[in-house]
Amino acid sequence: MNLVESREIFIRDGLVTGNLGRQAPFLQHNMDKIADIERIEDKLRRRDLLVDEALYQFYDKKIPEHIASRKAFEDWRAEVEKTDAKYLFFTDDDVLNSQAPTTGDFPEVWKLGDLKLPLRYVFDPSSDDDGVTIRVPLAALPQLDAIELLWGVPGWRYELVLQLLKSLPKDIRRQIVPIPDTADSLFDELQPAGGQGLLKQLCQALNRRGVMSVTPDSFNPSSIDRYLQPQICVVDDKNRIIEKGRDLQTLQIRHASETRQAVNEQQGTHTEFPEHFAFSKNHYSAGVVMKQFAALVADASGEAVSIHQYTDVNAALQAHRIGVLTLIKGKLGAKKNS
Questions:
Q1: What are the pLDDT digits (tens) for 300-322?
Q2: What residue segments make up the domains of the chain, in order of their start?
């Protein structure tokens, strides 16, 4: 094998792929840069931002023609970096087809009140993970809201609205053709922070346009492209995957027996309402800040209560109601006996 071939193999296999066999600041920076661009491509659902051949051309231009092995490269790099430590660092211009587009409409975390859940984007229609995946601890699963989830990722929301309009029955679709024009005209009227679900707001927008027969049940969200339906990845307290799925209600029902249990109990019992009692507080678990809800839970005798923490607000309220009634009954019984 001649020097030219050896050099090309070294650059392609050792540098472009990151398989140099040792840690180097320039290589870590360059691989991170490539990973960043690939994440942007996943969000934008395109594969034309990263110029693969440009990676080779960058090194080919920078590295002298006689360098064809790791030892020769390392000796040369040591000298070069004495005067320019970032000589081999990629910039966006080195590896991008065009200026990197903004991805502000593709958040890294999903915010639901105080709950912040990490997101991961995948662009691979053949994969079950295609689209966006929300990683949620099992304990926080009851705190997800299907109506809020339907708003989806802001950067994909127009396509979501378009496909929801196309899912309407034919007699309603006839009233809103051309559907892309309708989607354009009503899109800016939608307010994710308005407290109402996407389907209800779409109905109101169509009502204002004279389409009075549409209701939230008229839409068929299950017919939209899979990537527009967020995937929920349920993990345990050690971040191990328990289950993944796109039907939140099914996941919540399946794990209800676990998530409705108290997550911890405060020592001691009370026969009167505690002086310091806060119903809700933030709690850190599995890398996520979630809500915990305190409840006064009646003991087996029905004469005293202790404070338990839940992550399911409905379970907490149900237990708390019984606990409060227990205290009231005890207080009334004490007065009667006196």
A1: 888 899 999 999 999 999 999 99
A2: 3-95, 109-232, 260-337
